[in-house]
Amino acid sequence: MPSPVRELPSAAHHPLVHTDLQPPPSPRTHRALRRLQSAHTLGAKAASQASVLSHQRREQQQQRNASPTRNPSAANSRHQQVQQDSSRHRGRANSDATSPMLQQANSVAASRRSGIRKPVFSHGQMSLQQIIRDGPNDGDYVGALESARWKVIDEGVNSAEDGMSPLRIYVWMVLLDAPIMPTDEYLGLIHRGASPAYSKIRNDTFRTLTTDPLFRRRVSEASLIRLLNAIAWRLHDVREEGRSSRPSSRLSSHPRESLTGSISGHSQARSGAVAEPGTYVQGMNVLAAPFLYAARSESEAFVAFYSLLTKECPAYIRGAMDGVHRGLALVDRVLAIVDPKLAMYLTAKGLSAEIYAFPSVLTLCACTPPLPEVLRLWDFLFAYGPHLNILCIVAQLTIMRSQILQSPSPNKVLRSFPQLNADLIKSVTIGIIKKIPDDIYADIVAHAL
User: Which portions of the sequence form the region Disordered (predicted)?
Assistant: First the structure.
């Protein structure tokens, strides 16, 4: 039997629409900048597809109580707690590791589970590409989504050594619940010219992943400027609309319901407590870089990036980036639980996460090379929730613990994290999940909202 794990509510996701997947141009070829008017392929047949949003709301509300939890005896009380305290919990806790996810992560000890079979999902016979391209069987969107998440962990997203994949951006868009957006809408933002944040953007873009040849060959600075300027315009519009009490923008008003009443900005709006809109902040250039690298067009990168910012980590771009600072405090708290000796050593040296982990929290580890490993780590984070990045950072610290403990000046060691190894980080992270108390885990889930 797979080990039971915690399960938080899950929300609806983007329709699994028919898409003709074709390989994007490789960064090893010297092709011109992708044309801005490339079609948004995910929207090709959206009008004819049944919406995953309505299906999942009905089906998941009936099924969630039967889902396994880390502590089965406390399943009912945890579910009631989430309902009563929805303002602290994210509407979609996709990051909550499921039983099959834990089993796969523990494959490093395969000899201990040699007799355990892989779990069976409703769409287990279909490949990840088939699920994304053809959609679910018999309208079973919940089963298709769970199967897709499992396949991301079990099999990964097929890609070349440089991280390029014809499928990845579509997997991300589905997992991030990114709405369909016509390319002309993106072009309209571009044609508005310089946004109020344009000077800040220009001060950041030329420094984006400057040491990564793969990124520099595929993504131009002009492309990054356009994307960030469009994001800045969209965030600016939302702020202005909030001030004038007008309805929110088309993209930001995309419905996102949770199983327990939703804790998204839309549920807050319905209750009269509308969160402050975000704005452009330094570091968003690095966070945007993997989207431009993986996408086939700037409009695809835009809609996926905007969904991440506004649905998964809006507190990272609000005010004084309060969500980032909460995340840094959680890194210290989790490290003290997972590795008390390492935590005490860093504290004795005057090193808190605020000093060494700020870039890693803000950029979801995109600041640490190599880029192909960042993409693979993001597959995991988008499948089970970007808030798991907090645990991924702690995992990296435990991986390099010997080097830190043996150094009389660990600050020098922590100035530059070792190169990412996505598979190792995922395995360690999933092991850490089981050690986290429920209250702290709930704070991790909610810290970026």
Answer: 1-114, 243-269
